[in-house]
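Reading a protein record of the kind used here takes only a little practice. The integers have meaning only within a learned vocabulary of local backbone shapes. With that in mind, consider the following protein and its fold in token form:
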Amino acid sequence: MKKLNPAVFNKEQIVYEDNHILIINKIAGQIVQGDKTGDIPLSELIKNFIKQRDNKPGNVFCGVIHRLDRPVSGLVIFAKTSKALSRFNELFKEKKIEKKYLAVVKQKPKAEESVLTHYLIKNEKYNTSKAFKNEIKNSLKAILHYKLIASSNNYHLLQINLETGRHHQIRCQLAAEGMPIKGDVKYGFARPNEGGYLHLHSHILKFIHPIKQEEITVNCLPLTTDVVWDFFIENKCI
């Protein structure tokens, strides 16, 4: 079992780096961009880290391209230049970045592999989304593919491939199918994990680098683990 302080950026979080981007393995509890909590976001922690590491006298650029929910861990891309920020924003807008997640659930899925399609409505007041089977006014279509890849005595590990990117999409869609993610009390799991993190991890990103024109594939496991993650990692399920 391994714990890391989410208030600190650790160099072991760096998964990939070039002159244009930095891909890091976010620790659950870290926020990607500043919010009303006032906690220092990853974007600022990274700026401070690069400034010290590279002994930069001026300001460091660190552009936020996309986000992960605070209690979720895994891969996040940051831009080191404004050009990279613009190019990668286009990649995400055009859905040209393949994203895969790992999710641990209590309820075994009815099918070992399936495609889930729902229509989501976001509740701004409570920062949640609700899934509907049929399209309703102001809803957004959400599609994900899941595959059961391993099971323990108590839990099941799913690999998720996102086709769309909606607010709380994985959390909401799995919960709508009776499979809330471990620790996700907001979406119906029985109890929270200690520390409030979720067993949801962004573990693979694949894309054509828009500046270098090279295929990039990165993957990572959770840096902060517990007995459940440890079981699946030690048994080489992931």
Summary: The first strand starts at residue 14 and ends at 17.
